């Protein structure tokens, strides 16, 4: 980011379409989480885990993984970024355990993205074909592991769970690290010059703004949603 002579901020070092798509993913995720809150905390009969809403939520998560993979090819400090995001994921684990111990976040999307960035730091120089093969293997194995249960929680990050496993957010390395790797391949091929593929100089607009600040919005949106719903259901709709 640079400051122009007029004093306005210009995000010349950012790729516009990545910010835009990340903003779209954030909106989809927020909508899914809002429906989740209505169902889980206020018993509003919304089938968020079936049919359209299930795939809407998964589309958001996959888009985040894919874009994170692309972004990693544009960054020089993936190890630090990965450790930071994984640490934030662990803080969410602690917080969710305090408030919802029965289904707290064991290995959510921030854990996945953080660990994926750390792993990519050490394998970033492998050829595209090997990255693609590895991604395919991870996705196939991950889908096979969906049908396997074990008697320990130790392998939860890999995708092997025990029979009574419950988590409000769960994205293990198998198969989802494969999606991340596909993003890194696209980043290396399509964005090898670290520039937008569109000839657009402005990176403004609400969706792009959200995309530029996606981590911050991700962290604050649920407390805001839950606070608003609490006011609505306990004060506004209480006597109706």
TrEMBL record:
Keywords: Membrane, Transmembrane, Transmembrane helix. The keyword Cell wall biogenesis/degradation does not apply. Pfam families: HGSNAT_cat. It comes from the Bacteria. The keyword Membrane applies. Residues 14-223 form the Heparan-alpha-glucosaminide N-acetyltransferase catalytic domain. The chain crosses the membrane at residues 20-36, 52-70, 82-99, 105-123, 135-161, 173-191, 215-237. This is DUF1624 domain-containing protein.
